[in-house]
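Let's sit down with a protein and look at its sequence and fold side by side. We need material for that, and I hope you will provide a protein of your own picking. Once you have written the record down, we can walk along the chain together.

***
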Amino acid sequence: MKKLLLSFALLAVVAMVGCSEQAALKRDLKKALKVAVEQNKQQALRISPLQDKFPRTFENGEVKFTGTRGWVSGFFPASLWLLYEHTGDEELKAYAENFTRRLESLKDYKGTHDLGFMVYCPFGNAYRLTGDEYYKDVIKQASASLASRFDPEVGCIRSWNTGRKENPELDFMVIIDNMMNLEMLEWCGGYSEITRSHADKTIENHFRDDYSTFHVVAYNELTGEVVERRTKQGDADASAWARGQSWGLYGYTMMYRMTGEKRYLEQAVKIADYLIPRLPEDAIPNWDYDAEKQFKDSSAGSIMASALIELYGHTQNKEYLTVAERQLRSLSSEAYFAKVGENGNFLLMHGVGHLPGNSEVDVPLSYGDYYFIEAAMRYLAL
């Protein structure tokens, strides 16, 4: 009897400690989001007069921008929308509307697979929060533009336009990142054959036996057969590029939410169960899980944290939530989270864009900030 009472007492203590830690994390995240509001307002004020300029990173003491057609153009206005949702601050809403409308021309752009990032992140949040049909109309047209890149023989949406110069039809390239752009098509409706074909082909051809993912799969456009599996941004063709793994985890978690198809939930669980044991102590991955070069990628951590919180909601597997909590504690700490007025008004430090190309190494990244804000808000909503 005494042993039983002691066990109950220990469980009670553990529960109290867990609740206390969660309450502390929520306080930290609320503070971080206050900083995010100030950082993004300062950023918006500084760049409002600039045309076709969207913040990408901060290097060598200055903010680096992308144009409308840069794949990260939508993340800054999307962040403004999320922060408006969190605060109800009308100034944030005005900035969000302004920068989102600057991207309208993308609705007719068929030269990229990244329209989900570029259009759906800002316009999707805008429509969700305002109900303005203008935003919905842009999303519908952008979805038609994205769907035009689908090839029925390959069964996928083309990612990059480049291929082998001597025989380009043998190099129809699909990258794991492209899973993220399926959400816009699913939301629109009418594209389920395309999205599910792409997701199923990606399961079939992108993933290794351990459920890590290749970055790039090149197909023969004439036959649909796989020509080659390789990397562009990872350490090696056979390595696990960290952000790519996070894209895969997030993409299949999202596809389960959008479709209800259990095979996508099963895939997300397998990816999570591969990644979690490989995380370091602070739960923020190295830029490539297999690389000897040590550069943390906070963007891979923030994307993963947001995905794990959603995956926890679908599975009730507490390990996923516990890992996401570890990641959010790290990201909101001084080790990763910038102070107001610093870091070029970005939030997270220590991101890696493209290390093999020596591009955006150990810098803030606009998409890292966006998914941190999303993850923080998802956690606070639990």
